[in-house]
Amino acid sequence: MTTDQQYSPLVLRLFGPFDATIHGEPLPKLRTRKGQWLIALLALAGGREMDRDYLSFTLWPDSEEKQARTSLRQSLANLRDALGPEAWRIVSDSTRIRIDLTGADVDLIEFDMAVKQADTFSKEHAVNLYRGPLLHGCMEEWVLNDRQSREQKYLNVLESLSAAHIVEGQLAQAISELKKLVSVEPERESAQRSLMSALAQAGDLASVTMVYRDLRVYLRNEHDVDPSPETVAVYERIRGEARDRLSVPEKLKTESLHVSNSGVPVVKLPKPLTSLIGRDNIIRQVYDLLSEKRLITICGPGGVGKTRLAVEVGSRVASEQNLAVLFADLSSIDAPEQLIGVLSALLNVQDRSEASIHDELLNSLKTNPLLLILDNCEHLIDEVAALAIEFLTICPELKLLATSRQPLAISGECVWSVSPLGVSYGSESVVAEIEPGGHDCQSHSTVPLSDAECLFVERARAASPGFEVTEANYADVAEICCALDGIPLAIELASARIRVLDVHQIRARLSEVFSLLSGSSRGGPARQQTLKETIDWSYRLLTSGEQTLLKRLSVFTSGWTLEAAETICAEQSSSVSGTAILHEDILPLLSGLVEKNLVMVQDESTGRRYRLLFTILAYAKELAERTGELEACRLRHLQYFVDMSQYASKHFRSSEQTRIIWSLEREREEL
After folding, report:
1. pLDDT of residue 254 exceeding 50
2. Which of 81, 585, 612, 629 has the fewest CB atoms inside 10 Å of its own CB, making it the most exposed?
3. Residue 544: pLDDT band by 50, 70, 90 thresholds?
């Protein structure tokens, strides 16, 4: 499909759910779904003539011959009416029918052409065209062979592309492609082995373990087999290499712990490549808290900028307090037993027996004042919590600054929750003035740009130096930032699309957020190089009950109350399967999702409400649609709000009127 649909008089999307537009407007609703399948069949033929009898018997296999032909004539007439000015494309006589696709934009035809090419650009184009299974939702027998054929071509292209990107060193891109592949065909072990190898090269050993475990569970549950010897060998090789590097990882080697040869306290922090926008107050407040608290955990959803905040606070501590500051990235640790080894290497403790390493580590931490930053603790939460208690008890001059998607939940911990960047609500237009290389956002209007908009503009200018915010495009910039909930990672990925799309086109594609933001951010860890990978990381750390509830919560459009979640997301009976969620399970599971920053809490005058960020909602809904998780929830959702409306109608003129008005207003989007 082309970027600008408005320039094609007829656009047909056959991958994913059927979709068609005529001169930029949706195809009018047809009398029956058979009309959709008729135009789809004609498009599948690529403009070739098709026999009337074949079409009538294929589309109406259970009808009598005469009735099937009559149904075909009626659907054909209905289709011509719907096509309007493009009705000329339907060419027929008494025995044959075809569709003239001259100048039309048909994703299937583009896909078939692209997969035949050998160049990388064509293969990437084919992958982008594939929005999902051919005619998703169509259960007719005639589509199955074409659907399977295109799916296999798509998977083969993904595997070929990933191999090329691995050779070129584009690991993030290869990992993204391989994850797409195994999500569709998890039993393709060649892709699973490539994915584990690519993740290992990227240093994401935690994800290697998760990939292998998920594969092993899938194969046992679905096929009652274990991974092949080749797959086991790849996994064991990666594990062995990780153990060999564990004693002194190259990337963590450092000189003396506290003081360098010149007598200056050692500072080991990542060097940011971009400016930080909208976080000055938080940096100052966390910095000030460190004078009172010895353990601060910066918490927030994935992509909100926790690591960057910790680095900035550490830098300020080093410069203003003349204190040693060391930074440990724990994201690459895939087993709890590696934690002591990595910290020992960072602190330059010599490798002896396991017991002596532990003791030497404690002795090293007791020597001088130190701020130790532990980044990405969520997958080792229990182990980090235990170490933090021990370190802080034995080492009185040690301070810890942790980042995690959930608190450590130990005594003495101060949790600092990081919210997304501020966004603008409403439609007021402003024209931004941002100096190149700076982030001093000013406006010709009385309304300044929000922090999220400033970030978008600065990163967009880095991607395309000629980018400007104008009266014409400000509303699009504001809507993009608002729709992405002010999440910095999402905004940075969206702004990078300025090289290809204008802001109006980016805004128009927000409904396909993971496709839009599938580009990589190569400066971060592998698990955070695309938006979907960031959310994948959080999702895999949930319990099975939390995963199920998260998917079910995607039935809500704008938010919900605890009562609504208990009514809509819980099974009505304890006689259902063991994976069921009952009424009494909702509160503890919801609390877990809140603690892990996947559900946001809003305090309103009418009570506490909960919601999913836009990107989390899209992710959960995609998973739920794939697993059929929402069918029963949608029925309960409908009944819940029908009951609410009926109650409101019955009691509107009572003393409850004010409360009812507030309730209806609050639930407007759900209603």
Report:
1. no
2. 81
3. confident
Residues 260-288 have a mean pLDDT of: 80
Taking a C-beta distance cutoff of 8 angstroms, is the pair 127, 161 a contact? yes
Measured CA to CA, the distance from residue 261 to residue 457 in angstroms comes to: 43
Segments in 527-669 forming alpha helices (H): 531-540, 544-553, 562-568, 586-595, 614-627, 631-651, 657-666
The Cα-based distances of 625 to 6, 20, 572 in angstroms read 29, 21, 21
Give every CB contact of residue 364 below 8 A, 6+ residues apart in sequence: 257, 347, 348, 349
Do the beta carbons of residue 355 and residue 298 sit within 8 Å? no
Which helix H or strand E contains 474, and what residues bound it? helix 474-483
Average pLDDT estimate for 377-386 = 88
Residue type, 84: G
Closest among 293, 294, 384 to 333, alpha carbons compared: 384
Q: How far apart are the first and last CA of the chain?
A: 34
**The token pair that represents 401 in the structure block:** 């600054």
Rounded Cα distance, 458 and 449, in Å:
12
Our measurement of the distance from residue 646's CA atom to the centroid of its chain's CA atoms, rounded to an integer in Å, reads 38
Maximum CA extent, the chain: 96
Task: Tell me what pLDDT residue 224 has.
Answer: 87
- CA-to-CA separations, 139 to 33, 59, 143, in angstroms, rounded: 12, 12, 8
Backbone φ, ψ for residue 519 (5° rounding): -65, 160
Answer yes or no: are the C-beta atoms of 646 and 639 closer than 8 Å.
no
Find the mean pLDDT for residues 193-202: 88
Q: Quick one: pLDDT at residue 538? A: 84
Q: φ, ψ for residue 431 (rounded to 5)?
A: -115, 120
Identity of residue 514: F
**Per-residue burial over 354-367, b = 16 or more CB atoms within 10 Å of its CB, e = otherwise:** eeebbebbeebbee
Q: Is the dihedral of CA 142, 147, 149, 150 positive or negative?
A: positive
pLDDT value at position 354?
45
- What dihedral do alpha carbons 220, 224, 229, 230 form, nearest 10°? -70
pLDDT at 466: 81
Rounded mean pLDDT of 61-70?
92
Query: Which of 83-92, 210-219, 265-274, 315-324 has the least mean pLDDT?
Result: 265-274
Provide DSSP, 142-192: GGHHHHHHHHHHHHHHHHHHHHHHHHTT-HHHHHHHHHHHHHH-TT-HHHH
Tokens 């010599």 sit on residue:
350
**Do the beta carbons of residue 323 and residue 371 sit within 8 Å?**
yes
- Per-residue pLDDT, 264: 60
d(CA 432, CA 451): 12
Chain length of the chain: 671
Residue 99 has pLDDT above 90, yes or no: yes
Q: What is the pLDDT of residue 274?
A: 82
User: In one letter, which amino acid is 543?
Assistant: T
pLDDT at 73 over 60: yes
Cross-strand pairs, 607: 604
